[in-house]
Structure formats: C-alpha cells, structure tokens
Amino acid sequence: MESVSEAAIEARRLTKVFDGPGGEVRALDNVDLIIRKNEFFTLLGPSGCGKTTLLRLVAGFEQPSGGELLMDGEAIAERPPHRRPVNTVFQSYALFPHMTVAENVGFGLEMMGRPREEIGQRVERMLALVKLEGMGPRRPNQLSGGQQQRVALARALANQPKVLLLDEPLSALDFKLRKEMQIELKRLQSETGITFVFVTHDQEEALTMSDRIAVMSDGNVLQIGSPTEIYEHPTSRFVADFIGETNLLTGRLSERMASSLRFELDSGGLLEGQEDGGNETGARVTLAVRPERAEISREGSGLAARIEQIVYFGTDTHYHLRLDEQTPFVVRHQNRSGATSRFSQGEEVRVTISPDAIRVLQD
Ligand SMILES: Nc1ncnc2c1ncn2[C@@H]1O[C@H](COP(=O)(O)OP(=O)(O)O)[C@@H](O)[C@H]1O
Ligand SMILES: [Mg+2]
Asked: What does the protein in this record do (predicted)?
C-alpha cells in the first residue's frame, strides 16, 4: 500500500448514483483510486463511463452517494468547491468574452483580493508559461481555438492549485493543434509540478501523455498502471480491446512444463506461454496478442493461417489472417527495409508468437 503522503487524491469505494428519468444511474460504483502528487494521471474510458462524474466529485460540484474522497489525506466531502485546492479546465474554454485575455487570467486572483501589482506579474508569468506573451490586451474572440484553450489553462493555473482537473480539454481542437497541445500540456505539468488529472476517451492521447492511466468502464476502474503496463499487460478483455488493436484467442491451458505453459487453441494448434493468469491446468482461457508481437513466415512450426487481406500503411503492413473460420488474426509488420510485400493474398502461412507476448486475460 502506498503511504498517504504520496497521495494527492484518494477515492475509497467512491460511489455516485443519479436519479434519472429512466431510474437510477450508477455513474461510479465503489471506485478505489490513488492519484499521486505531481503525476500526470489520466482517466480513460468510453463516453458515459463516469469520468466527468469523478472529476466533478473531486472539484466539489457533486456530492458522493457513498464512499470517501480524500485530498492530501484529509476527507473533503464537507468542503465547498472554492475551499478545495483544485481548478478545472473544460472542453469548452468558458472564457469571459467581454474581458481581455489578461483579465480572464487574473480573474481568480482578483476574486481572492490579491494586490493589483501581484496580479499583473502573475498574469504575465502565466501568459509566458502558455506561450501567449503580449496577448494580454486581446479579447478571446480575437484568438484561435488553440490560443483560447491556452488562456483557459493560464487562468486555471494562475492561483496555483495543487491539482488541475482537465475534462477532455483537447477534443474541440483539430488534429495538428491537438498534437501540439498534447506536448504543451505535458511540458506544463512537468514545469509546474502540479498534479494533473486528465480525462479523455482517446487511447492514443492517454498513452502518449500520462504517467499513469486508470481505464474505466461503466462506473468501474478496471485497471490502473503506466502506459506500458496498460498496453503490454492488460488484465481484462475490455482493456486489451479498448487500448490499441489486439488479437483474442480462446482455448485451454493444457500443460505445465518446467519453465513454460502450453495452450491448446480452439482454432487448432498449440501456443507456448509464460504466464497462467492464475488458472488451473485444464481451465478455459482467453489470450491476447498484440499485432506487432506476431510474425508470419512461409514455413516453420507456427500456427497455420491464411492471408485474407494485406493493407499497406507506409510505415507498416497489416496482414489480416484467418486461423480458422471463426478466428481472425492481424499481424503488423514494420517496413524497415522498404521492400514491397513479401506475401500475397490467399497464401497459406505460419504465425509465430513469442511466449512473452502472450497475455492471459482474467475474463
Ligand atoms: N446529472 C446527472 N443526472 C443523471 N445522470 C447523469 C448525470 N450526470 C451524469 N449522468 C450519467 O452518469 C453516467 C456517467 O456520466 P459521465 O460521468 O458524464 O460520463 P463520461 O464523462 O465518462 O462520458 C452516464 O450514464 C450519464 O448519463
Ligand atoms: Mg465527460
């Protein structure tokens, strides 16, 4: 268990139930979670899984139906939003249109009654931090979408919150700007040392930006880990499927050997693996294999497969195979040599998967 002092935010069996017109909605269902100080923590999951609800509970805009929420080790349920060391950045920038950029950024400090000179200096510093030097006198409608989002960030950072909550802040931006802002946000987080809790439904965004990710589904946190852990060691079918492309194979744990395990696949053939996922010999299992961890060859001892389609992507080529009628399988081959496709559609091939690339899922 982690020590309490490391935790910026801790949720213990946190539950939120809404009374909707169609009955009760369990937006959060006994969520346990620790967000460490100074980390870039991402809540990742499909629309409706409870991400915004969790942020709103942390910010104090909603009250929990059950469980506990702690900040810095202290229960905060009773504390109103303005007494929590937290600020939020929304997808809609929510800037005040009648105020200048500088007035927007300084607004929170103004409300706190800080001296004018201090506000001026802090606003300058914040605008420099988000690379908007000299833009202070403009109005929001004289800025691009990306610049407006930077103003919203500067405003949220101005009164030095301990935690910054970001609810899909990049999803209104176009692709290129979004990529730029991903790097910017990451830089801002490491420069300020503020704990970022970032919400997205975009798996690539989560993988590239986060120190740790919590994958959510239907009000539950399914897995928490670093991007590598989540991508390379998914524990459930949902996580394996939601993050990146994955091949799922069903079968049976058929044999235990001295240093490895053998799986008998429903599609035919045997696979050697290293982990048993806590299963007994004979148990039914679902295995996950990433497309880039498998290779195809013309001969050898791999699984028998037939090439249905070859898709060339420039950097890689995707081979869509079939192990049998029910079992599709994708192999992704990186085009290092620049050679054209080595295989052709309809060809019978062999698929080899290294034992350490096989994950045994828990459901
Ligand atoms: N104020 C509310 N009243 C009723 N249901 C709500 C309310 N807010 C959210 N919900 C429901 O709670 C679930 C989680 O919503 P939300 O946290 O907004 O998901 P996400 O941000 O992951 O898309 C959804 O089913 C949503 O419809
Ligand atoms: Mg949301």
From this structure: Part of the ABC transporter complex PotABCD involved in spermidine/putrescine import. Responsible for energy coupling to the transport system.
217 touches ligand 1 (CB under 6 Å): no
CB contact set of 175 (below 8 Å; sequence gap of 6+): none
Distance 9 CA to ligand 1 centre (A): 21
Separation between Cα atoms, residue 36 and residue 22, nearest integer Å: 37
Token duo for residue 192: 């300020």
pLDDT grade, residue 4 (50/70/90)?
Answer: very low
Sort 59 into a burial class: Cβ within 10 Å, 0-12 / 13-18 / 19+. Answer: middle
For 198-225, how does the pLDDT look when each residue is reduced to its tens digit (9 = 90+)? 999 999 999 999 999 999 999 999 999 9
Q: Is the CB of 27 under 6 A from ligand 1?
A: yes
- Domain 4-240 fold is Rossmann fold (3.40.50)
Strands 86-89 and 163-167, by their bridges, are parallel
What average pLDDT does the segment 32-43 reach?
97
Q: What integer pLDDT is reported at residue 341 of this predicted model?
A: 61
* pLDDT, tens digit (0-9, with 9 covering 90-100), for 268-321: 999 999 999 899 999 999 999 999 999 999 988 899 999 999 999 988 999 999
Over 50: is that where the pLDDT of 158 sits? yes
- Amino acid letter for position 285: V
For ligand 1, atom 20, name the residue with the nearest CA.
Answer: 48
Mutate to test the pocket of ligand 1, among 53, 198, 220 (most ligand atoms within 8 A of CB): 53
Ligand 1 pocket, 25 CB below 6 A?
Answer: yes
Bridge partner residues of 199 (DSSP):
43, 167
Would the CB of 49 count as within 6 Å of ligand 1? yes
pLDDT at 3 over 60: no
Q: Is the CB of 44 under 6 A from ligand 1?
A: no
Assigned CATH topology for domain 247-361: OB fold (Dihydrolipoamide Acetyltransferase, E2P) (2.40.50)
Domain extents for the chain? 4-240, 247-361
Q: Please tell me the number of the ligand nearest to residue 92's CA.
A: 2
Is residue 227 lining ligand 1, measured as CB closer than 6 Å?
Answer: no
Which ligand approaches the C-alpha of residue 43 most closely? 1
CA distance 20 to 5: 38
